[in-house]
Specification:
alpha/beta, 18 helices
């Protein structure tokens, strides 16, 4: 059983301690080997479940939707958290008074599960400004629906919660309508109980077709218009298969554009005008966006929706709800956390643990299968944090962040750099803004190094901030992995050309090159960089990155190795 962390909300130098980093390593190690099944829980998995409950309990009072042994859904957590309201330090130890009828919610969940693919019902996972952000799979089509209702009928001793389908063509059609009316009606009741009005569908197709049969459907093509009272958004986003292209391009999302001309792609982007106003995005150009711009714009849209004035919640889903869905749920949770708007007392390592464990592992993401196929959507999610550090992605940028427990004096450059490693030559930070590249003056070859000697990491009267840094353009692959989009710029064309033939430098002595002042990172940027830093170190120690074209100099392998050392971990599975 992993020990619980300190309840302190401040992020000090111990915030990314070896123990907390090791928790992430253990979690990813297990996750990379098994898919979670609620009926097959080991003590190791039970410890992960309990850790998630403890982390949720730091900032929220919550009830539990029970899913013992996966009886409601086999790949949902056994204890599904229903966040009711935020709690202060004083309220944390007070008696909990529920604001809902949990028995009614449990009943709605049990009865509505047939409406959605694989029984993955509408499930609340984030609470923001009193609104529930939910996840699910898409609607079940008649093939799955009849298959599952027939299965339930047989194994329930002839007693099922659905109606028997009459024989005969016209009667069968009536039976179809009655069955869909019933199960989808229950799904709608659950949505309304959760005050969800906005539904964001990430499918690139209207219906999922296998072997010529419509296996699943979606709200946007429901013929009876049962979901007409909801605001439906069709925001097609590539499935997990597309992320093999990402991996094969050495984990490069820039310039990677989905092929929208494939036969099965038939869902256009459709967003109501009420959500496109004042966003300064030309949505008609969505098919020309690369993976970076598409993900950024979709995240902006989701944040825009949940920041609307009404109290309507949001449902996000793809087909099965275990690839694209956790990607955006996780980005939402981390983005809102970086703003101090949710999980305010959690440190970077803790919010990272929570979103990996709860949003990905306990909701059934098949990481072992995806890794075996090179579909690195999980890695993409957390490496993508470098692309959303800007205040443009802040949900609360126009108002003071009331929930933040982090103060300037608590969140320092020392925290980001992880101080200096015990070995003076180790690289201590490869987070995007603090990956420093120096160029050798005399030899004509460049070297990759990060050197905290260029930061003033001594305590000041109020807060510690970075001073002058020296930098040059990184090698292309290193830049793509460790620098935010557009952050790094070459100081001259000659330095850019030289850096393309660089070798790894492990020394710590700074070399004098033209430099400039380092911009002071925002609190949001510092938080997201810290999360990404821990993730990359843990991922390199466990799964590792499999480059399709290894660098002759082995530069990236060396960088990841040193990166892991920088937070007290030694990488064993770096890029191969």
């Amino acid at each position: 059983m992993m020990a619980a962390s300190s309840p302190s909300g401040s992020f000090t130098a111990s915030g990314l301690s070896f123990r907390k980093s090791e928790e992430i390593v253990d979690l990813i190690d297990l996750f990379s080997k098994i898919q979670y099944r609620a009926k097959e829980v080991t003590p190791r998995v039970e410890a992960i479940e309990n850790r998630c409950l403890e982390l949720f309990g730091r900032d929220y009072k919550y009830s539990v939707i029970h899913n013992p042994n996966g009886e409601v859904c086999g790949h949902y957590p056994r204890q599904i958290v229903y966040l009711e309201y935020e709690c202060t330090d004083f309220q944390r130890d007070t008696r909990f008074e529920s604001t809902i009828q949990i028995s009614k919610l449990q009943d709605l969940v049990n009865r509505s599960k047939l409406a959605r693919c694989r029984g993955r019902f509408v499930c609340p996972v984030i609470l923001y400004n009193g609104k529930h952000i939910c996840r699910s799979s898409t609607l079940a089509g008649w093939g799955e629906l009849y298959g599952r209702t027939g299965y339930n009928y047989i194994f329930s001793g002839g007693s099922d919660d659905t109606e028997e389908v009459p024989e005969g063509d016209s009667e069968a059609r009536n039976g179809d309508t009655q069955l869909f009316d019933k199960v989808r009606g229950l799904d709608i009741k659950l949505l309304r109980y959760l005050s969800v009005r906005n539904i964001c569908d990430l499918m690139v197709e209207n219906k999922k077709v296998k072997f010529g049969l419509n296996v699943t459907s979606s709200e946007k093509v429901d013929k009876a218009q049962r979901y007409a009272d909801f605001t439906l958004l069709s925001v097609p986003y590539p499935g997990c298969e597309f992320f093999k292209d990402y991996k094969d391009r050495d984990y490069t999302a820039e310039g990677l554009v989905f092929n929208w001309n494939q036969d099965y792609v038939d869902a256009p982007l459709t967003i109501p005008a009420c959500f496109t106003q004042n966003m300064n995005i030309d949505w008609s150009e969505y098919q020309s966006w690369d993976l970076v711009e598409q993900t950024q714009n979709y995240l902006k849209l989701l944040l825009h929706i949940i920041n609307s004035d009404d109290k309507s919640g949001l449902l996000v889903h793809c087909i099965s709800g275990w690839d694209r869905t956790p990607l955006f749920v996780s980005l939402l949770r981390l983005s809102l956390w970086a703003d101090g708007a949710v999980h305010a007392s959690l440190e970077p390592a803790e919010i990272l643990y929570l979103t990996i464990a709860y949003d990905w592992f306990l909701f059934g993401h098949m990481l072992p299968d995806r890794l075996s196929k090179g579909e690195e959507i999980f890695f993409f999610c957390f490496n993508f944090l470098k692309h959303i550090v800007s205040e443009k992605f802040s949900a609360v940028r126009k108002q003071r962040r009331k929930n933040s427990h982090f103060k300037d004096s608590d969140f320092t450059v020392e925290d980001l750099c992880q101080m200096k490693s015990k070995s003076r030559g180790s690289v201590t930070s490869l987070s995007s803004d603090f990956s420093l590249i120096t160029e050798e003056v005399g030899g004509g070859a460049s070297s990759l190094t990060t050197d905290t000697d260029h930061f003033s990491c001594q305590p000041q009267a109020s807060s510690w901030r970075p001073q002058t840094v020296v930098w040059n353009k990184p090698t292309s692959l290193e830049e793509r992995l460790f620098h935010p989009l557009g952050e790094a710029r070459s100081s001259s064309s000659s330095s850019s050309n030289q850096s393309e033939q660089g070798a790894t430098r492990t020394g710590s002595s700074p070399l004098a090159v033209p430099g400039r002042r380092c911009p002071i990172p925002s609190e949001r940027q510092a938080r997201l960089e810290a999360v990404r830093e821990v993730f990359l170190a843990a991922y390199s120690t466990t799964v590792g990155l499999k480059s399709s074209a290894p660098s002759p100099s082995g530069a990236i392998s060396g960088l990841l190795e040193q990166f892991a050392r920088g937070v007290g971990l030694r990488g064993t599975n770096a890029i191969v």
